[in-house]
Specification:
Elements lengths: L1 H6 L3 H17 L6 H15 L7 H12 L5 H12 L1
């Protein structure tokens, strides 16, 4: 909504929205980068001995246990599929 306020020329409301976003983000866990996600996927695949796409559920389950709230699991799922294909 900050972008909507900016396009409407309401800079004071846009600034308030951006400040609120910064406060909320300070309480959220840091998200893993794409490289960190790929490394975590590779580590879990190695640790679980996953060898085929049939093992994807086990790998994703372990990733969710270890990295809840820190990882984009849609991206992680794509990486797991690529590695196990």
């Amino acid at each position: 909504s900050a972008g909507i306020y900016e396009s409407a020329g309401r800079m004071e409301l846009a600034q308030q929205e951006n400040e609120e976003i910064a406060i909320i983000e300070s309480f959220m866990p840091k998200q893993l980068s794409d490289a960190e996600t790929a490394a975590a996927v590779q580590a879990v695949i190695a640790e679980t001995g996953a060898a085929s796409i049939k093992d994807m559920g086990r790998v994703m389950g372990e990733l969710k246990k270890r990295h809840a709230g820190q990882m984009d699991f849609a991206k992680a799922g794509a990486i797991v599929k690529e590695k196990l294909a």
